[in-house]
Amino acid sequence: MLLQVLLSTACGVTEPKGIICTREFRYGVTAIVTDAADGSQETEGLSGILAEGSYREEMGVGGNVLAGAGERAGLYELTVMADGYVTWTQGDIEVTADECHVEPVSLAVLLHPSVQPEH
Fold this sequence. Notes:
Elements: H1 2-11, E1 13-14, E2 20-21, E3 27-35, E4 47-52, E5 55-58, E6 60-62, E7 65-70, E8 74-81, E9 88-97, E10 102-103, E11 105-111
Parallel strand pairs: 3-11
Antiparallel strand pairs: 1-2, 3-7, 4-5, 4-8, 6-7, 8-9, 9-10
């Protein structure tokens, strides 16, 4: 029994009521961004904003992946921007949580190239 307790506490954090939570950090929202026309990964000038009421967060960027709402449940609106593309927005992104972590939501974002006016 003692060995089981030691292994459990070594792998995570013991919470009230006997719940054992891991120490991992989870993002509530991730978005994988690609070009809607050709499926290429878009990274040039890529940025994302998550908003919930007065809360605003600039998402982290890694290649063509945006991540935000770290361990923060809520109902978000996501805005994605990249150089040469039409801004993409989606609301009502619900991130829930259990006793330990958020339940991640992953989105596929297809950006459409901006149409350049002809002169």
